[in-house]
Write a structure and sequence with these properties.
With 350 residues, this protein is mostly helical. The chain has helices at residues 20-38, 43-51, 70-81, 86-111, 122-126, 128-148, 156-184, 191-214, 223-247, 263-271, 274-284, 291-304, 306-328, 332-348, and strands spanning 2-5, 8-11, 115-116, 119-120. The strands form two sheets. The chain has a two-stranded antiparallel sheet with strand order 1-2. α2 (43-51) crosses α6 and α7 (156-184) runs antiparallel to α8 (191-214).
């Protein structure tokens, strides 16, 4: 059965954003990540710590981080379900989060964004060249965390497989970034092409879950099924984000000003009438968009009733996800844990 909460279809029991189990996981991964920077004194690491919310511009410790750690939580939750040792899950979860922060720093440079999450971006303070260095450094630290598994009891064969999985997912994430940039200057993006972008990006959440299963005693044989589950969840979360960016968020996503394409926009070009396509073309043939353009774009999307098509995709994926839970869980306790994770991610949002 589906329950619709604030326009989101969630699986099973309702959980709120302050679920104590996830708050504890967030605290643990935050502590672990902060320790990775404590012993490093070069200013390069200060830039990384600043971006991740651990320090302010002057290098003073910031006690409360705004990071959601949703990918790390996914890895930790799967590890807990399959009884993986926490000492194995922490390096995996931290690697996942550092890679994502690496991509954020590079995105800020690429898009010329002066602020992220209400504070100045790394490149805005230290310049684009040092911003790129900080991002590359985080990527290297992420890979080293996977290698760290060999120092704490994971066999070399498993570490090698983990590194391959991590690098493969990282590469697919980069491929999705390539498509995202290519689509910015196109108005003929097909639904199938856009879904390929989402599939490539969803591999990272899939891998976050598979890595946790890989280092567990009871989940390794199920890692492919867990990976498929994580993949479907990743696509669903991206579609959910696309929908929310137009109809639920009170603020304009600055990425739209760079002509970023999302599922509602791709559907709009597919189903628009000739006159509506001309209006869409008038918007997207501009070099950059303004807030007024986004307002006009929303009006056109509502005229076409684009949200209906997006909601159909969301409902279909939700059904697939619900049907696959039994394939990765063998008891009701684990089923409830997975449903709680899905509900939490859907309500919190990437």
């Amino acid at each position: 059965m589906y329950f619709e909460v604030y326009g989101i279809f969630v699986l099973g029991i309702f959980v709120n954003k302050d679920n104590s189990n996830f708050k504890e996981m967030k605290f643990d991964i935050d502590v672990y990540l902060r320790k990775l920077f404590d012993s490093r004194e070069m200013p390069l690491y200060h830039m990384m710590a600043y971006h991740m919310g651990f320090e302010d511009k002057a290098g003073n410790v910031v006690s409360a981080s705004n990071s959601s750690y949703l990918y790390a939580l996914s890895s930790m939750a799967i590890g807990e379900i399959f009884s993986a040792q926490k000492k194995f899950i922490y390096p995996i979860s931290s690697a996942i989060e550092m890679f994502l922060n690496f991509t954020e720093i590079h995105d800020d440079v690429k898009d010329g964004l002066p602020q992220r999450n209400g504070k100045d971006t790394v490149w805005w303070i230290w310049g684009p060249a040092q911003g790129i260095n900080a991002g590359d450094g985080l990527h290297s630290l992420a890979r080293l965390q996977i290698c760290e598994l060999s120092q704490i009891g994971v066999t070399s064969d498993v570490v090698f497989e983990a590194l391959q999985m991590f690098d493969s997912a990282s590469l697919k994430f980069s491929e999705s970034k390539y498509l995202e940039l290519e689509f910015q200057e196109r108005i003929d993006v097909k639904i199938e092409e856009y879904m390929e972008l989402l599939y490539l990006r969803a591999e990272f959440l899939s891998t976050a879950m598979k890595l946790a299963a890989l280092v567990s005693d009871s989940g390794n044989e199920l890692k492919e099924e867990i990976g498929k589950f994580g993949f479907n969840l990743g696509v669903l979360l991206q579609i959910n984000k696309d929908i929310d960016s137009f109809w639920e968020s009170p603020e304009v996503d600055l990425n739209f000003l760079n002509k970023k394409k999302t599922l509602p926009i791709v559907y709009a070009f597919k189903y628009a009438s000739n006159s509506q396509k001309i209006r869409l073309g008038d918007i997207y043939f501009k070099r950059v968009l303004t807030n007024e353009d986004i307002t006009q774009l929303k009006t056109i999307l509502d005229e076409i009733d684009v949200r209906k098509f997006c909601e159909q995709d969301r409902k279909k994926l939700t059904h697939q996800l619900n049907s696959s839970i039994d394939l990765v869980c063998d008891n009701q306790r684990n089923i409830d844990s997975v449903k709680s994770l899905v509900d939490y991610l859907m309500l919190t949002g990437f």
